[in-house]
């Protein structure tokens, strides 16, 4: 991303030309296209569940339990007669909610701490990084267990636990990327011109590391979906009657030999969502890298 202070090094590119070039390169990038399609499918499922689903996801229909896929129940029913397709649709909404909020927590606090460490250096940098190391000792699962013991299981507990895990990730990525920008000539010129540390951070550092943070956010989004599914599978995440892909996998274990498709559908949904986000992240990394952009 070009910086205004670098005008002497590279001539400015019109915004319309830059956006058009990005769009052309994006259409030719297979990973980006595949990831964007899968993520669009995930978002579309979540949006559709807000206004419509084949059946109420928590509706119990014992006479039709363990029904195979049919025109009436597209993906069949579970051991309580609940429609699998409806649970998959609503489960997508919960997965996106967990990912967005948990990643948002990581970005909000992690980027601020990482930028502070890079801007101040010295003992501030040391304290922030050691705090990040300490937080890494408590992964999302362990944090969720501790929070569950205090506040009880639930969706909010999962979001907070995953969000806490994301904070040191973004802090480290922000610090490493920001320190590289702080060593650039245009930042040194800005400091010589009398700009303060926070003004330089806002005007020069954050805009130039935004692409790195965007790519990291897509990766952490995928990790958040996996973590929420794992927590729900253990009974620490989303609680009944709210549908959750992880809890659907947990409930399918009992019927694994009688109705194996009960585990296939939520497992496939998780796999496609994580695959789409990872492909999207890989594509964005290639498209936003200036060296690779020029090569293409």
Short descriptors:
296 residues; mainly alpha; MetI-like fold; disordered N terminus
What report would you give on this structure?
- This protein is mainly alpha-helical and 296 residues long.
- It contains eleven helices and no strands.
- The two termini are 16 Å apart.
- Residues 1-13 have low confidence and may be disordered.
- It has helices at 15-27, 30-51, 84-120, 122-136, 140-151, 155-182, 185-192, 197-233, 245-252, 261-288, 290-295.
- The longest helix has 37 residues, at 84-120.
- It has a single domain (17-295), classed as MetI-like (MetI-like fold, Orthogonal Bundle).
- Helix 3 packs antiparallel against helix 8 (197-233).
């Amino acid at each position: 991303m070009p910086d205004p202070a670098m005008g002497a090094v590279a001539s400015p590119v019109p915004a319309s030309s830059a956006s058009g070039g990005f769009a052309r390169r994006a259409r030719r990038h297979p990973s980006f296209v595949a990831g964007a399609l899968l993520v669009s499918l995930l978002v579309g499922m979540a949006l559709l569940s807000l206004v419509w689903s084949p059946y109420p996801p928590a509706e119990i229909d014992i006479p039709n339990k363990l029904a195979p896929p049919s025109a009436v129940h597209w993906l069949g029913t579970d051991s309580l007669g609940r429609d699998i397709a409806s649970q998959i649709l609503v489960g997508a909404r919960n997965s996106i909610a967990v990912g967005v909020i948990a990643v948002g927590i990581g970005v909000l606090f992690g980027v601020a701490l990482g930028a502070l460490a890079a801007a101040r250096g010295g003992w501030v940098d040391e304290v922030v990084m050691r705090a990040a190391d300490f937080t890494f000792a408590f992964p999302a699962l362990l944090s969720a267990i501790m929070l569950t013991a205090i506040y009880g299981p639930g969706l909010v507990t999962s979001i907070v636990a995953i969000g806490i895990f994301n904070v040191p990730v973004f802090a480290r990525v922000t610090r490493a990327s920001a320190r590289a920008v702080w060593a650039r000539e245009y930042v040194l010129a800005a400091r010589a011109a009398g700009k303060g540390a926070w003004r330089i951070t806002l005007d020069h550092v954050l805009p130039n590391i935004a692409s790195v943070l965007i790519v990291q956010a897509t990766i952490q989004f995928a990790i958040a979906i996996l973590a929420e599914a794992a927590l729900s599978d253990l009974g620490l995440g989303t609680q009944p009657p709210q549908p959750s892909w992880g809890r659907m996998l947990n409930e399918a274990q009992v019927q694994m030999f009688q109705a194996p498709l009960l585990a296939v559908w939520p497992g496939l949904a998780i796999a496609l969502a994580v695959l789409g986000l990872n492909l999207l992240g890989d594509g964005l990394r290639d498209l936003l890298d200036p060296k690779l952009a020029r090569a293409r």
